[in-house]
Amino acid sequence: MYEAKKFNLPKLDGISEESVKQHIGLYEGYVKNFNAISALLPEYAKDSEKHAHALSELIRRRSFEFGGMRLHEHYFPQFEGGSTALTTSGPFYDAIVNEYHKPEWLTEMMRAIGNMRGPGWAMLYWDPEGKPARPDDSGRSGGQFLTGFTGEQHQGHFVTLPIILALDVWEHAFLLDYGAAGKGKYLDAFFKNLNWGVLEKRFNEASA
Ligand SMILES: [Fe+2]
Question: How many CA atoms lie within 13 A of 94 on its CB side?
Fold first, then answer.
């Protein structure tokens, strides 16, 4: 069982307080529903043959609720502390430049993934077992980024890899502020408010 976390969010530029409030309400719904499904499972498991169909659907959907919970727990903290630019030195910066040449190109990649059709998330992971795309002066011997699109909340993840960036591109993230066709403006606002220091901290933990 889990409890919904609290987030210490500043006033965001281009993402309204009402939108954030509703979005956090949805996050709390994932926590609630994960717990509700978890509570049902032992009862259905007692007579699993009789409840086989219900049980299988609950098991399948529980990872959807878990993904919704955990991904939003990566999403909201990315705004905590307020908008902070990427530090232009250090291992995180070096790793980005090694693979993307310019930090802006990583941002463009994440935007392109975010613009893919379907509800989901644009994701950036770090795999310590990969190899740098090309030699550089960082002294780093291993590790590479992986980007991906996670459908709904739980499909298409790179399993076990630590998450560096989780960009929610479900319509609920922008519909209130920008309408159904407003994803591009929302992506602008997301990156405007992003605290790159949070991502750098995740990277440092993932690559330690
Ligand atoms: Fe969301």
Answer: 16
Residue whose tokens read 């699109």: 149
> In the predicted model, is pLDDT for residue 59 greater than 90?
yes
How many whole angstroms from 22 Cα to the centroid of ligand 1?
Answer: 10
φ/ψ region of 156 (left if φ > 0, alpha if ψ in -120 to 50, else beta) reads left
Element (H, E) at 10: none
Measured from the Cβ of residue 129, the count of other Cβ atoms closer than 10 Å reads 9
Phi first, then psi, for residue 147 (nearest 5°) are -110, 150
Q: Widest CA span of the chain, in angstroms? A: 62
The answer, as to whether pTM is greater than 0.85, is: yes
Residue 44 CA to ligand 1 centre (angstroms)? 30
pLDDT tens, position by position, 72-110: 999 999 999 999 999 999 999 999 999 999 999 999 999
Residue 140 burial by CB count (10 A; 0-12/13-18/19+): exposed, middle or buried? Answer: middle
